[in-house]
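[User] At your convenience, examine this fold.
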Amino acid sequence: MSRLWGPGHWPSWAAVALFKLLALLPFKGLARLGFGLGWIGYQLAWGRRRVARTNLSLCLPELDARQRERLVREHFGWLGVAALCQGLSWSAPPKRLSRIVRLRHRERIDALLKAGRPIIVLVPHFVGLELGGTAFTALVHSGMYMYQRIRNPVIDAQVRHARTRFGAIPVERQDDLRGLIRMLKSGVPFFYLPDQDPGRRRGVFVPFCGVPAATVPTLGRIARLADAVVIPTFARFLPHGEGLELCFDPPLEAFPSGDLEQDTARMNQVIEARLRSMPAQYFWVHRRFKTRPEGAVSIYHQRRRRRRR
């Protein structure tokens, strides 16, 4: 840890201190500041803005250009709120988290925990994911989560601390799957984040909003090996700074099917259904369709190529 205190890391520590100070504000004030930060991001992050526009045009083609642009602006606002909520994830005690985060249909997860069932908590990338995950471990139950290191070591240390301070266990992507299965069977829930582009080698192409998307086909396999129940869980910021809602949907029935590709497609369908109910809070700035099927043209560099011509 001492190596992180060198002068080169001081700007990162200053940012950490600022985020923790902002976390002391009432949540409504924090949300207003977050939307202001998001407005700045919308103005400056033109590359991510373009990615969001492209994703929305592919996933919600029924919207016209004006409606999509309104969603992009709102999305950047929620990104700003999520960014400023990092300080809450890093330092807020359970009592404060319980005032900010509402647990909707908690009885569904509690019933599974009481029955001693192995549980996979399917948590797609909506912008409230980080705060929702912290609240889950603080207010419901500790668990395991897949961890990918952040390049900035100071921020990496803060995020790792935030995710483990209530007993959660990090699992590296390259770790042995057998250890994960053993812990699942022992009653430790596993937080599964499914909807990032894994590349051609690790993914299979299944539809996401009607577009072939490289997707990790691991959910069905883990569920089968651990005889686990999959419960889709979604974090949603409430309007007007009223807090965050962590929604537990009913467990997936007849899952897994035994067909990995079919199970992966079904997982995407579950995410799509929620995406349409709160479209501004899905993580649109991620290049979800970066990896393309063999022979298909690139989606995100098309415009750049046309300009060069």
